[in-house]
Amino acid sequence: MQSMHFIGNDWFAGTTGKTFDCVDPATGQVFATLPAGGAAEVDAAVTAARQAFEGWKATTGTDRARILRAIARAITANRDRLASLETRDNGKPLAEAFLDVDTIAQIYDMYADLAEDLDRRGEEAVAVPGGAFRTTVAYRPIGVVGMITPWNFPLEQFTWKVAPAIAAGCCAVVKPSEFTSLSALEIAGIIAEAGLPAGVLNVVTGLGSEAGEALVRHPGVDKISFTGSTATGKRIMRTAAEDLKRVGLELGGKNPVVVFDDVDIEAAVEWVAFGAFINQGQVCTATSRLLIQDGIADRFLKRLVEVTEAIRVGAGTEEGVKMGPLVSQPQYDKVMAYIGAGRAAGAKVLTGGGRPMGRDAGFFVQPTIFAEVTPDMSIWREEIFGPILSVMRFANEAEAVRLANDTAYGLAATVLTADAARAERVADALDAGITWQNCNNMVVIQAPWGGVKKSGMGRELGRWGLESFLEPKQKTRWLPGGGLGWYDIPATAAE
User: Fold this and answer.
1) Can you list the domains of the chain with their CATH numbers?
2) Residue 250 is among the residues annotated as catalytic for this protein
């Protein structure tokens, strides 16, 4: 486990002398210390990336695919080490960490295939009427990309950005969250050993206000790719605009799950609990707003409370645990403040609302369900990023859609119903970039991921993730030869 920045395929202690602590969310105890980089470290990383870019962009997609597949194999070979580190740093159950590691290996393999497709695609011909022009479109890597990744899925979010950027021929400087930086450093070393040339991938650890700010402002960065809160995304967009940097923003969500009265209650309850409480509710697509049709509301909520109270909460390394601690003390304080605000506003706690019994250390919060919620309450309107589910009832489809769409966000939405036609109709009506029908929070890595409204711009995953790091370049040739004949140009006088 390294405790230095990773720049140019080498480990670098940095120059600031500042550090920050890595805290085990299950105990609240410090277990590692990392350097807090600033402008100098970011400049060194960007310089390494710019120097590597000329050579890396000249490689073929096939060359890049070979390295991407080697990275996938190396990740699988280091599966236990990566998963254990992710659980200790983030707090998530070990079973989830293993799933994350398996998924990122699949993502590197997928982008290997897409990198090879770039070679097969070549330049795309554009149909131009009249036959006077031959126009094609070539795709070129954008350049050096600054990436700022969140703490909820450290390995996955690192990979969602790095893998397509490598496949496209870009170089990257990653600033991981200060709460979960260890797996980014670990996987950077694994990637280098798999054969990625020096400077193509660099990692600078530090605070968002220092290293993150320096990365966004650096003139050598061509694009910023950020996943995190909407408020931070707005600040990044304003700063990036000074240099007209391209931006990709995957931001917050306050996502609805709409449950109609014709569902299989057992299956629907499981999907609702999964969508609300997986990864401790620290998921941008967590379906934290439950809209339940009047006819089954009482029966449904009774069963949902029973299922929720059966969720085993504990340290991620403990056998059978399905919900771990929150990632940090600040996140714990934020979630508990929202629980207090919900109570103060008059919402009714059906279950949860505090620490689990026997969990006095660490950042543990019970999975919590609020009923008698109104649309003006903060627990209904604001992204909490914790295991809190707020419930409202509806009478009919039109009311359900209206309540679901009454939000500033538009990342994800779920509809659960036995009526296939209604599932399609409601999914089409929901203002969200991602919709699920009769399932919840399923990540299809081949499909686009991103939102509308204040949930961001751009898409990750699949071919859309690759294309976000490519620049289309028009190439047009005049076929008839000679001049256009637009001006009345006199003939050249004889010598």
Assistant:
1) 5-251+455-476 (3.40.605.10), 256-437 (3.40.309.10)
2) yes
